[in-house]
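Hi everyone,

Forwarding the result from last night's run.
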Amino acid sequence: METAIEALAAGYGPEEAAMRAYLREGGRRAQALGNRGPLRFTADGKVHPDILDAYWRCGFYVFEGVLGPEELADIEADLKDILDRLPAERGSPVDAKGRPAVGADNQAPTLFWSKPLGDPFGGTALANGRHPVRMFEPTPDRDAPREVVYLILGSLQFSEAALRVYGHPQLLAVAAAVNGDDFVPFTEALFIKEPGRGASVAWHQDGVTHWDSPDWDQGAHGFNFMAQL
């Protein structure tokens, strides 16, 4: 964890020490929540109730070891291939090697660009204003590119490995346990946060909530699975 803390705090200038302390304290609190561990099932194949209880109590659960080394290696290989084939710059139909670029001719919004270490959504009306506060934007190194792709929507069309994770039977079992057997997976994305370049994603709440629905149920809200590389 200490390596990650050092990497995350870098670039905050006079606030680096405060950021390190903040991250260490956050890590300590997170470890004490009791909402992390392997994905466990009961004898009849249901998601273990301890996991669901912790999810409802905390609002999230950290699964450990769900994706094995081979699966992670496949995802990483696909991601590196995608990064290698991104447009050379915004609007370019080709990548840096002159090949047709990933997503360049897609009609749906696919590639999202930002200045390095920026926060393009925070404090704006984008995405229905769901990111009300802009995150701190550190100053990138002088040799950083003018813009980077930090978000790719519709990423399943570019990665067989990501598609396999999307259909992971154990993860689908978790979705059914939370949202019911008639759940519908409805979106996918890659957030790319390369050291010294990746953009921030400001604090926000995804989707349209149903707090005022007359037949409200806590399991009616969608949720995200996030796999970290």
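DSSP finds seven helices and five strands in the chain.

Cheers,
N.
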